[in-house]
Automatic annotation (TrEMBL):
Cited CDD domains: Aldose_epim_Ec_YihR (cd09022)
Superkingdom field: Bacteria
InterPro entries: Aldose_1/G6P_1-epimerase, Gal_mutarotase_sf_dom, GH-type_carb-bd, YihR-like
Coiled-coil ranges (or none): none
Gene Ontology BP annotations: galactose catabolic process via UDP-galactose, Leloir pathway; glucose metabolic process
Protein name listed in UniProt: Aldose 1-epimerase
Amino acid sequence: MIPAAPTGEQHTIQAAGFTAVVTEVGAGLRALAHQGRPLVLDYPADRAPVGSAGLPLLPWPNRIDGGRYAFDGEERQLALTEPKYGNAAHGFTRTLPWRLESRDGGSVRLALRLFPQPGYPHVLDLSAGYRLAEDGLTVEISAVNAGATAAPYGFGAHPYLTLGEPVDGAVLELPAAERLDVDDRKIPVGRRDVTGTPYDFRTARPIGDLALDTAFTGLARDADGRVRVRLTGAGGAPGVELWAGEGVEWLQLFTGDTLAEPYRRAGLAVEPMSCPPDAFRSGEGVIRLEPGARAVHRFGIRPC
């Protein structure tokens, strides 16, 4: 008997010199390469994702303090999926199997009907589409409220960009003017201007030994409305770029200091998010999905 992969069926797509692998479990991006050069931190097919690598985070990203929040006057309690800190983290869909909706040589789309969960009495129809083209990988995540009552919703994703070497020597360009301070349980306690601090990467510079597990906002967008984060090698060596479209107001950056070897600081998680950490409690950036309403978010990865 051939053992089943922990992430289920592996969907490989190829186009324009790019190859990507998308998993059945979690609808995650397990691998992405251009002309054989890895652009994201991948992991073997016979193990689970490392540090939530490549996974959509739905129906909320990041953490909810104590898993408790209120919506439309109802107090709710989510399962505490980050027991170390006593938080609910990264939604429900990372470990669920998604069904194949469509596929051709260069694209694949997976779908999931998320039924009510403890603390989240809603039904969502979720879709994760991955498309390769000359301009790289485009990811489209959508959610439709298939239930009878309004639902809170937030989008997030967890790709790790990589240069194939430790991030210490990588040069980061991040057009973000503010960051969040957090407490020892990673719950926000306030915003800070990045000007004059080690967290200001609006002018590209090396990451060095800085440890990041930090949410950034105040994002500057290019003329096409996209925000772009670039990771390049010292001396202008080839790099990788993540762009995010409309509705992405936050980026969580994580240097992977808590990951086990050989993944520790081997890549930089650049996590597009529609809302900040603890949003279900604060209400900031939370999308109110009325019955039948749809929310769509897009991001992409390409060499630079």
